[in-house]
Structure formats: C-alpha cells, structure tokens
Automatic annotation (TrEMBL):
<dbReference type="InterPro" id="IPR054691">
    <property type="entry name" value="LeuA/HCS_post-cat"/>
</dbReference>
<keyword id="KW-0028">Amino-acid biosynthesis</keyword>
<keyword id="KW-0464">Manganese</keyword>
<dbReference type="InterPro" id="IPR002034">
    <property type="entry name" value="AIPM/Hcit_synth_CS"/>
</dbReference>
<dbReference type="InterPro" id="IPR013709">
    <property type="entry name" value="2-isopropylmalate_synth_dimer"/>
</dbReference>
<comment type="similarity">
    <text>Belongs to the alpha-IPM synthase/homocitrate synthase family. LeuA type 1 subfamily.</text>
</comment>
<dbReference type="GO" id="GO:0009098">
    <property type="term" value="P:L-leucine biosynthetic process"/>
</dbReference>
<dbReference type="InterPro" id="IPR000891">
    <property type="entry name" value="PYR_CT"/>
</dbReference>
<keyword id="KW-0432">Leucine biosynthesis</keyword>
<comment type="subunit">
    <text>Homodimer.</text>
</comment>
<feature type="domain" description="Pyruvate carboxyltransferase">
    <location>
        <begin position="7"/>
        <end position="268"/>
    </location>
</feature>
<feature type="binding site">
    <location>
        <position position="239"/>
    </location>
    <ligand>
        <name>Mn(2+)</name>
    </ligand>
</feature>
<dbReference type="Pfam" id="PF00682">
    <property type="entry name" value="HMGL-like"/>
</dbReference>
<comment type="function">
    <text>Catalyzes the condensation of the acetyl group of acetyl-CoA with 3-methyl-2-oxobutanoate (2-ketoisovalerate) to form 3-carboxy-3-hydroxy-4-methylpentanoate (2-isopropylmalate).</text>
</comment>
<keyword id="KW-0963">Cytoplasm</keyword>
<feature type="region of interest" description="Regulatory domain">
    <location>
        <begin position="393"/>
        <end position="522"/>
    </location>
</feature>
<keyword id="KW-0808">Transferase</keyword>
Amino acid sequence: MTDQTRVVIFDTTLRDGEQSPGATMSHSEKLEIAELLDDMGVDIIEAGFPIASDGDFEAVSEVARRSKQAVICGLARANFRDIDRCWEAVKHARRPRIHTFIGTSPLHRAIPNLTMDEMADRIHDTVTHARNLCDNVQWSPMDATRTEWDYLARVVEIAIKAGATTINIPDTVGYTAPRESADLIRRLIETVPGADEVIFATHCHNDLGMATANALAAVEGGARQIECTINGLGERAGNTALEEVVMALKVRHDIMPWTTGVDTTKLMHISRRVSTVSGFPVQYNKAIVGKNAFAHESGIHQDGMLKNAETFEIMRPEDVGLSETNIVMGKHSGRAALRAKLKELGFDLADNQLNDVFVRFKALADRKKEVFEDDLIALMRDQETGDAHDRIKVKFLRVICGTEAPQSADLILEIDGKELRTTSQGDGPVDATFNAVKALFPHEARLQLYQVHAVTEGTDAQATVSVRMEEEGRIATGQAADTDTVVASAKAYVNALNRLLVRRQKSDPDSDVKTVSYKDAG
Ligand code: KIV
Ligand code: ZN
C-alpha cells in the first residue's frame, strides 16, 4: 500500500459477529448487512466461514456475487478442504480474499497436537495453497498476543514467504493492552524479513474493555488494517466496534493522522439494522450509536448545549447519521409523511409494504399521543421479525393480573394454520402467558434471557422485549414491540420459538418439524 495515512477497515460482523451465541442472521439479513457495509465504504467484508455449513457457504457466495466495491473475504482453517471451499464461495467477488488461520500460542498448538515445526510446515503449505488460488491472502496466527515472540516472528515470516499479502495479529482473548499492542506490531514490522511488503492488521477482542484502544494503538505501531464489527458484536465481550475506531480517527485526526473510507453518516442506520437482525440491543450509553450518546439530560448540560453545542459535544449528531430533531408524528400524519420519515430512518419501502406499516402506524398513533422516531424503528423491527412463513402466530391475548394471585392468561395461537386456545396461570402475567404458549405448543427449549426496554418516555411508551431461547445447543433470539408489555412478551417468545424451529430444521434437515406434537387445548 502506498498511502501510509490510510487505514483499511475490515468488517467481520457477518463472521466473528455472527459467531456470537444467539446472533445468527438469516440469509437475506446477511445480504442486506453486506450491502450496507459496501455502500458505507467498508474496504473488506468478512462474509462468513464457508466450510461451517451450506448456509454459510451460500451466504458468502451470494455476498460475493452482489459485491460492488468491497473486497469479499471468507474464513478458512489451515487445511486444503477449508481453503478450497472458501475459494469456491469468494471467487464470485470482483475482489476476493481468502483468510486462513491457525492457533499458534502454546494452548492452541496443543489442540491439533502439532509440534512447532509441524505447525510451521502446515502454515507454509496452506498459505501457499491459498495463494495459488487467490492473489489476495490474509493469514492469522490465532492468539498471537499469547504466542512466544520468537515463534510468532518465525511463523509470520513463513506466511509472508508463502505469499500472504496481509498478516493479521489477533488478540483472540482480549488480553493485550494498548502499549503492548503497539509494540508487538512495531517489533514485527521492524524485525521480520519481508514485513514491509505486506499490510499488518489488528483484530482485538474486548474482554477487558480495551479493544478500541488496542486497535488504535496497533495503528500507532504500524498496522494499517483494523478488524472490527458493527456495535462491537462478537464472541464473549465482542470485537473492536467499527463505529468507535472510525469516529475516533475522524474526531481526533489532530493526534491520529489516519483516515478511513467510511461514510460516517451511515453509522447509525447500520447499527440499528445489525441490532435488529442479530437480536442484540445496543447498550443505551454505548459510544457513538447508543441512544444516550447525544442526549443531554441535566440542566447544566442543556443550558450549555443551547448556547453552544460544542460545550458538551465533540461530534455532531449528523456526523453519525442522527437527525437533529426526533420529529414527532401523530395520528393525523399521512402516508407520504410516514414514507418520508421511514426513508430518513433508512427504511425504503415498496407500496405494499408501506400499506401494511401504515395500518400499524395508525393503530399505534391511536394508542399513543405522539409517535417518535424510536417508535417507528420499533414498529419496523416488529414488522420484520414477524414473518408470513412463521408456523406460530399470536392471535389473541387477555391477561388477568394484580395483587390477588393467581395471574392468568387466555391465549389463542395459530399453529400451522389452526387456531388453538388455552388459559394458563403463572407467577405474574408474563409467566402465565409463557405457560400458555407452552401448553399450546409443548417444547423443551429453555428461556435464557428475558429483557424489556421502554422505547420512549411516558406511560404510553412502547415496550420492546427480547427473548433468548436454547434447545440442544441451538440458540435463537426473538424480539417484539407493543404498547402492552405482556403482548410484546408473548410475541417475542413466539418469535424466538419460530426462529428455533427454523434452526432445528436447518441443523437436522431430515427431522420433520411437522411431527412436533402440540396439544389441541381449545
Ligand atoms: O479472534 C480471532 O483470533 C479470530 C481469528 C479467526 C482471526 O477471529
Ligand atoms: Zn475474533
């Protein structure tokens, strides 16, 4: 690379992010996120792990076929079968890349039970093989930050000689700290023969909350590719957040003189989309894209802001794609106004889609005095999570709750086109409702997480509910929004169940999900 001030942004939301338990995205969701990343100016999109499943392979292939500017990368372990499969998927891209990796630290070397020399040979052979297929090859020594220095330098040299064009140095377990991160990259660049002919990349996990600082420090040390994910999605505590490194480089260009090709005004929209499709809500006080990131609550702050926005703001909301006013809509707002508002929020709807949303918007506006942007986003999310192909649908719910136990729920579900009704009791209205779902559709899935958020202020606020369920190692998340928290809970639970059924069928295509018994309690 000639321009030493340019930092390449490598997004791995669709691979490392999607690996996060419960964050699995559907095929069409992956295509949509890839398109948003490409349009936003991300340089490289790691679209998946093609050998992992047929679904992953199809998704990477399709992302590759549809790619515009971005390099499309697939992940492969250090064996020929993985690499061949990866190439079969990414080769459709205008600019394909194979990313192959192996764990080089003592703990990781013990897993394939290879000696240091055997692993070095394996690295040579697999990188050579990848390079024979593709002229853009990235190699990663997984757990690099816990690999012995001499061995790390030795294998990096081997990978460069075998033809790797990018060397990624992962902090797989989020163990390093900023100074060490910078020093490691600097030392590799200074000492490994051939280092000046490749790009060094940094890939940091956030276990100690230092991923962004470590990635930026690595750039100080000479790395010119940052690997990151939208909203910092990723295994355990996640990866470096794309929005954080990109905005840090933009806002503090005075002390970090590197640029990226990312259009930052698209950050907010993609953050919301990734949150929706992954089912991982964005923490309210998350830097850059959190709901409160630009909110000024206290009197002193508000006073200062009114006099001069720079008093408390180091970046403008518009820089990250947040419109300045949270314009209110009401029941008198028409179709055109709704379409325009949704477009501004990043939802470009066809006429028939708009009709459906409009009906729901009117129903919401009847129940709520003011409909805020966040309400519309919640409405769109809810619209998208419910799918015409869902096997289970909530048709009716009435709960009795209050100080006198027992609380009970009278529920009608449509299951495979047939309406079933039951009344169940429980420890509170939500428990009673979930018991009713279970009575109508018996299942072994375990509820792992139940979360409620108020979308806006006020007692008439919509609630968004997230539910995570687990069944034999398969995890699915469901979300729903409604001004009635119990209705939102029922829909979110059913949404998670529907996703679990799809997942069950995918992982065991021979199992006939239709044979899952449910009792006609009507
Ligand atoms: O964290 C890690 O080490 C990885 C590698 C596969 C690059 O994600
Ligand atoms: Zn990782």
